Amino acid sequence: GQSLEQPSEVTAVEGAIVQINCTYQTSGFYGLSWYQQHDGGAPTFLSYNALDGLEETGRFSSFLSRSDSYGYLLLQELQMKDSASYFCAVTNNLFFGTGTRLTVIP
Amino acid sequence: DAGVIQSPRHEVTEMGQEVTLRCKPISGHDYLFWYRQTMMRGLELLIYFNNNVPIDDSGMPEDRFSAKMPNASFSTLKIQPSEPRDSAVYFCASRQGIQPQHFGDGTRLSIL
């Protein structure tokens, strides 16, 4: 079967750094993806890790350790507009985690 | 690029009625996905197609749900008869090969 675990909520201060973790259990692993979803909006792609290590895209970075079945999304220099839900996904995005609601406070 | 287009954006109907949701994927994308999102169950994959052929429909909740993709530019998700527990946001997404998925804006469905 497939399962992904993420924290349900995270709160962080504007300008700070926040890390959102994802642990997964899956058959047939092709990589870990991250999506952002604002309230009332659609999920939008942020980052993808097929191999171990860190991928950086501007203020966002994503890390994967396949041996630990673990990854995280790192958001730096937080802005108020980063308040949203963040989802990890596996198996070519067929399965999504339950999402982490990030609230950025002034 | 117009993105994935879903219609209608909102649908309110009475239980027992037939509901049809529509999706136009991005041109050239060979995969199409239907998801359902609720607070309780999160984002669930219902069915996906590759080159218009259904590959995995194990996520379709029951026989009341059906999906078709008659050509590369159009897909429908039908619920007949609808029930209040079907109320959710339904997303369509498409992608090319192993590239990231692009989601439509979703259809917010309310069954009274």
Could you characterize the architecture of this molecule?
The complex is a heterodimer of chains A (106) and B (112). The mean pLDDT of chain A is 93. The N and C termini of chain A lie far apart (41 Å). Helices cover 0% and strands 57% of the residues of chain A. In chain A, a hairpin with a 4-residue loop joins strand 7 (60-65) and strand 8. In chain A, strands 2, 4, 5, 9, 10 and 11 form a six-stranded mixed beta sheet that branches. Chain A is mainly β. Chain A has no helices and eleven strands. Chain B is mostly beta strands. Chain B is 0% helix and 55% strand. Chain B contains no helices and eleven strands. Chain B has strands at residues 5-7, 10-13, 19-24, 31-38, 42-50, 53-56, 65-71, 74-79, 88-95, 102-103, 107-111. In chain B, the strands form two sheets. In chain B, strands 2, 4, 5, 6, 9, 10 and 11 form a seven-stranded mixed beta sheet that branches. The model of chain B has no long low-confidence stretch (mean pLDDT 95). Chain A binds chain B through residues 30, 33, 41-45, 48, 87, 92-99, and chain B through 33, 35, 42-45, 48, 56, 91, 93, 95, 98, 100-106.
Element layout with pairings:
The complex is a heterodimer of chains A (106) and B (112).
Chain A: E1 3-5, E2 9-13, E3 18-25, E4 32-37, E5 44-49, E6 53-57, E7 60-65, E8 70-75, E9 84-90, E10 95-96, E11 100-105
Parallel strand pairs in A: 2-11
Antiparallel strand pairs in A: 1-3, 3-8, 4-5, 4-9, 6-7, 7-8, 9-10, 9-11
Chain B: E1 5-7, E2 10-13, E3 19-24, E4 31-38, E5 42-50, E6 53-56, E7 65-71, E8 74-79, E9 88-95, E10 102-103, E11 107-111
